[in-house]
Amino acid sequence: MKKLKRSARLVEMTQYLLSRPHTLIPLTTFADRYGAAKSSISEDLVIIKEVFEDEGMGELLTMAGAAGGVRFIPKIPKEQALIFAQDLCSQLQQKDRILPGGYLYMSDLLGQPSLMDEAGKIFATAFADQDIDVVMTVETKGIPLAYATGAQLNLPVVLVRRDHQVTEGSAVSINYVSGSHKSIHTMSLSRRALKEKSKVLIVDDFMKAGGTIQGMVDLLAEFEAEVAGVGVLVESGSVESEERLLHDYVSLAILTGVDSKSKEIDVSPGNYFNKR
User: Which range is the signal sequence, renumbered to this chain (predicted)?
Assistant: First the structure.
């Protein structure tokens, strides 16, 4: 039990809620933690709720009843998300990102915890109303984004392997078609990694035609799992609609062109900002 001044209690309660998103916390937890009356805790939560909403940090939902309490739902206003997307586009347009073959270097951005955390908040906002059990991605570059999203949704992360690991036991493997050359690859998922009939949010760093993500969708079918949503950091806008294997997804940026000669890179905010 901690005896704190109200100002200190408000700070610690705020931190407690921020570190436990999408978790139902009974009022008795705070009352016992700080040795305060529930009425005082309720007053504190009203103040925290106002700050969360005014600052665009998310919602603090109150659940009535004996088993009730409060639940913090991280949400980022679309205006703030757009500022993030515009900054992401600006960084992607740096001329030295162009690699031989017209590829775009993104690994440094995927390695920035603060940037991935912000992207994770946007995906958590986009899919906040969905019933989701786990976040899934395929190794390796999408891993930081998946963990950032999982942290904001308070959900576990499942990794699909390109090569089966003996240490993960028996696995389900499938072949899928990916890349501009339509080459065939293999992906696998440990049978212990995902419960059957789970609801899964797929997250990835980049999508061209959608072959890799479609491969994950097909892999989930082997587990009788349901795709609750798909989020990609950057999508290629140069793919014709009839070539796209996936049409229901959320993107934060669209790469529409890379000119290796002029070193020009055309990137704009993704389809998330066109959705109501």
Answer: none
